[in-house]
Amino acid sequence: MTSSPHYDALVVGARCAGSAAAIALARAGRRVLLVDRTAFPSDTLSTHVNFPSAVAEIDKLGALERVMACDPPKATHGMVQADGVRCLERFASVDGIDYGICVPRPHFDDALVRTAIDAGAELRERTSCERLVWAGGRVTGAVLRGPDGEEYAVSCSLLVGADGRRSSVARMVGSERPYRGSDNNRACAFFYMDDPQVGTVWRERLIQLRQGATHALIFPCPDDRVLCLFMGPREDIPAWRKDPMGMWERMLEENPAVRERLGGATNFTKLRSTAENPAFFRRSSGPGWCLAGDAGHFKDPIIGQGMRDAMRFGRLWGEAAAPVLDDPAALDAALRAVEERRDRECMATYHWGNRESRIFDVSPLHREVLAAWDGADPPRLLHMFDRIQSPHRVLNPLVGARFATRAMLRRGADRRAILREAVEELRIDAGIWREELFPRFRSTRQSRSERTDWQWPPRRPARAAGAAPAVAPAAVAVDPLDIGESVPAGAERVAA
Ligand SMILES: Cc1cc2nc3c(=O)[nH]c(=O)nc-3n(C[C@H](O)[C@H](O)[C@H](O)COP(=O)(O)OP(=O)(O)OC[C@H]3O[C@@H](n4cnc5c(N)ncnc54)[C@H](O)[C@@H]3O)c2cc1C
Fold it and tell me: Tens digit of pLDDT for each residue in 403-422?
């Protein structure tokens, strides 16, 4: 085994979290090695919507111009519609950015990686982290395997594991088992297609259409394409995989708003899907190491916040570590402080994701909230997506009680059902408020938004007899666990 010179930081995984950490460290003049087992541009399982607060993070990394080079539509509005009741709001400005985007990952991640290289990081593609090197209880390096299969050791002052939710760095530092989590219930099934609404206001809207148990989320993409994601019961996934276009027709039938937006769409990609979205927190820092992005914390994709947080805390870890890399005690304290900050900033959003991932039908309470907030200025719902205000503050118990009362006073209302729902929401809120008022670092105490049957490793949903995988195995290398691994860019674009 050969060895190579010392790096200030070795970053494993080069997408949102890894590139962000590398950019911050390299900008501070540190010597950074960024490795990924894939080669860019490369795809990964994600619906990649970025609300303005995420776009602002891209800007802070200095990658916005590159990301925008593919000319994505700028979404100035967000909309949630349930059972025909609509709430359309304009995004507020976050650090000067008032639009969202949905840029496919091959282009997006490549833009981040190129920005890291420009900042001075050294990139090694098709290179995986195989083992860690320890000395005196600290991580002091790693054994890497390069494209030719040769293994070599690299020494470093800091190792950043930014290698996604099935992080092998997490396993190697003994942090693989999350200390808390929730095995959420909604699955994801999505296609890209040609947008039948090119040239209309729909291209400026990120929308969520709720009807029955399944939510449809629709995000305009570059090149007149659009992404349509269905998040419904995970039990539907075998049917999606067996007959994607049959399920598409069923969705158009069941949800007239989807038909209005996307009816007549053509040129579909193959379906991409996952039934596994367990949300979790792992211990994310220790002597000489940290876990950035999904490696340390994952929340339900239904709220589209993962990329933003991966970039934000990747950058913050890099910025905090850069000045103290030569002082192990100060470095460990700085890493831990960022972990605490991440938990503080992400906890309420994590609970919101768990809450949204419950399977429920649209209720009178939902309709009441959406109708009242339609056109709100400043926006209410979009403040949650933009992290301007936490969900439990926007829809706080007082506001909730007002809407519940209003809903109960409507003629023909099922008052008992509304009261039951309001009480359950209040109980969830109580847990979130308690955590916010009395925070406990790495608390293992379960809260009511979390599913009590949580287990690790997550349960695998059974595949229905005869159900075929959604994506042709010959065309696309799909992770057997279906939780988002690299696929070659453009590998799955096919005509319907
Ligand atoms: C179905 C789905 C939909 C989603 N939709 C959205 C959305 O719309 N908006 C949003 O903001 N978030 C979304 N997310 C979440 C978002 O995709 C993630 O939060 C984000 O990709 C995390 O970035 P990351 O850099 O932490 O990890 P990843 O993007 O997972 O990148 C990890 C990288 O590490 C590399 N790697 C792994 N192991 C090794 C190793 N041993 N050696 C070297 N390299 C390694 C991998 O090749 C990969 O490139 C979604 C997630 C899912 C599953």
Answer: 999 999 999 999 999 999 99
